[in-house]
C-alpha cells in the first residue's frame, strides 16, 4: 500500500511497514517489524516455538533482535541496501556504503557468528526463532550491491540460507525480496566495498 497516503497515516503516522492494524473496541495498530514479530509470536498458536517463554532465552532473542535493529540494520539499510529504492528519491552515499560495510565486517558479522551462532545453527538455538526472522531477511539487502555480497563471510551467507530454508511457507516473500535486491542493476549495484 501507499504508506504516505492520508488513510495510512491515520493508522500509522510513522508511515512504515509492516503495520498490524487491529479491529474492534481496541482498534489501533502496531508497527516496526520486531514489535510485530513479538506480538504475533505471543498471541498466535505455535508462537512459543519461535519465541520461547523461558525468560533467559527470550532475553537473548530480544537482544539479538534489538542488535539487528539498532546496529546491523542501520549499516545495511541506509547506504547499502536502500540503493534499490533510489527510484523513490531515497539518496544513498557511496562513501557511507563503504564505511557501513566495513563496520559490518569488523563489528557486526563477528558478533553474529562468534556470539549468537557460536554453538548453534540459529541465534542461541538449534531451531529458528523470531530473532532469525528479524536478522536473515535483512541481510538480503546486501545483494543489491553484488560486490559487497561477494565479500560477505561464508558463515553469514550460510546462516542466511539456513534461515530462509527453515521457513518454506514464506519462500514466495523471501524470493520476492531476493529478486528485488539481487536483480537491482541501478546506481551503486556494481560499486566496490
Would you mind describing this structure in some detail?
- The chain has 193 residues and is mainly alpha-helical.
- Helix content is 55%, strand content 4%.
- It has a two-stranded antiparallel sheet with strand order 1-2.
- Strand 1 (19-22) and strand 2 form a beta hairpin.
- The longest helix is centred in the middle third of the chain and has 23 residues, at 55-77.
- The chain is globular.
- The mean pLDDT is 92.
Topology:
Elements: H1 6-11, E1 19-22, E2 28-31, H2 33-43, H3 47-50, H4 55-77, H5 94-116, H6 130-139, H7 146-150, H8 154-166, H9 171-182
Antiparallel strand pairs: 1-2
Helix pairs in contact: 2-6, 4-5, 4-6, 6-8
Q: Describe the global form.
A: globular
Number of E-type strands: 2
Beta-strand percentage range: under 5%
Helix count equals 9
Q: What is the topology, as strand order, of the major beta sheet? A: 1-2
What descriptors fit this protein?
193 residues; 2 strands; two-stranded antiparallel ribbon; mainly alpha; globular; 9 helices
In short:
The protein is mostly helical and 193 residues long. 55% of the residues lie in helices and 4% in strands.
Amino acid at each position: 500500500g501507499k504508506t504516505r497516503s492520508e488513510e495510512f497515516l491515520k493508522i500509522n503516522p510513522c508511515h512504515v511497514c509492516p503495520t498490524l492494524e487491529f479491529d474492534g473496541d481496541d482498534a489501533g495498530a502496531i508497527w516496526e517489524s520486531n514489535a510485530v514479530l513479538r506480538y504475533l509470536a505471543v498471541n498466535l498458536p505455535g508462537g512459543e516455538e519461535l519465541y520461547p517463554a523461558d525468560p533467559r532465552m527470550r532475553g537473548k532473542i530480544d537482544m539479538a533482535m534489538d542488535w539487528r535493529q539498532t546496529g546491523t540494520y542501520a549499516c545495511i539499510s541506509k547506504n547499502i541496501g536502500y540503493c534499490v529504492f533510489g527510484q523513490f528519491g531515497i539518496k544513498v552515499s557511496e562513501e557511507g556504503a563503504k564505511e557501513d560495510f566495513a563496520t559490518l565486517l569488523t563489528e557486526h558479522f563477528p558478533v553474529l557468528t562468534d556470539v549468537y551462532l557460536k554453538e548453534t545453527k540459529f541465534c542461541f538455538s538449534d531451531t529458528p526463532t523470531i530473532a532469525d526472522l528479524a536478522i536473515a531477511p535483512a541481510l538480503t539487502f546486501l545483494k543489491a550491491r553484488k560486490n559487497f555480497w561477494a565479500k560477505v563471510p561464508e558463515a553469514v551467507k550460510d546462516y542466511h540460507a539456513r534461515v530462509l530454508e527453515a521457513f518454506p511457507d514464506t519462500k514466495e516473500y523471501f524470493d520476492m525480496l531476493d529478486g528485488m535486491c539481487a536483480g537491482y542493476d541501478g546506481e551503486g549495484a556494481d560499486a566496490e566495498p
